[in-house]
Amino acid sequence: MIKNYNNGICTKKGEMKQEFYHVIHKLPPGDSPYVRAKYAQLVEKDPEAAIVLFWKAINAGDRVDSALKDMAVVLKQQDRSEEAIEAIKSFRDRCSKQAQESLDNVLIDLYKKCGKLEEQIELLKQKLRMIYQGEAFNGKPTKTARSHGRKFQVTIKQETSRILGNLGWAYMQQTNYAAAEIVYHKAQQIDPDANKACNLCLCLLKQARYSEARSVLEDVLQVKVSGSDDPKSKSRADELLKELEQFGYTSTSPQLNLEDAFIEGLDQLMNEWTPFRSRRLPIFEEISPCRDQLAC
């Protein structure tokens, strides 16, 4: 139970102490099930108690959006990702429309943790559809994101490139390097960075297209893309360069038998940024069943 600094007496001094206590521990005010769950999570460092209290908060209708998301995060930290997935699927209908996007992001992380690549890929494709149809960002051109306690603005272009990067990585885990290559190419055209350039280089390297891989890597080596000066990016680029130096740089590019609508669809997504379009991309409706894995 959260400590009561007022000792039952409502004093300005006591209120200030309690407010200061909540700020220090990053706790919401009050004494509801959700607040007690956060106290167990952040102050007592008792994840099992926190999970129980988050369940109570959800059942009591107390800050359900935050309670479900926070409980899923704690379950993931306890290596109970499967339970977290089922919880989100079962109770997300109790959450607000504004919370659905952040729940999808948690779900993608959980799928990644569990190695559920097909589910991860399908959800990433769904997020791309929502962006094109104007359903993402709640219809706004930007949204506020958080990272390590810091707030910053994210544009639709940046979010699309990020999702494409995640989709490319999921394809790589399936060793579907042809699909990953296409996705990374489009991501780089929208919002290029060193990490995706290195991943694209690796896709090409895995397909024995060493000259093309070297050309992509040059953008990082010559600090032409964002993040190239990051120590991790430099280190990874050096490792890829060493691997490339073991091979010749010329190779005939294989003719990929890919659905044209996939490329055309992503081209339209990149060029048409108005977030209020109702027409769907051809890629979302006209992909051949046998090539569904390449559709987004």
TrEMBL record:
Its main location: nucleus. Keywords: Coiled coil, Nucleus, Repeat, TPR repeat. It holds the Pfam family TPR_2. SUPFAM superfamilies: TPR-like. PROSITE patterns: TPR. GO terms for cellular component: nucleus. TPR repeats lie at residues 161-194. Signal peptide: none annotated. SMART domains: TPR. InterPro entries: MS5/SDI1, TPR-like_helical_dom_sf, TPR_2, TPR_rpt. The keyword Coiled coil applies. It is found in: Nucleus. Belongs to the MS5 protein family. This is Protein SULFUR DEFICIENCY-INDUCED 1. It comes from Nicotiana tabacum.
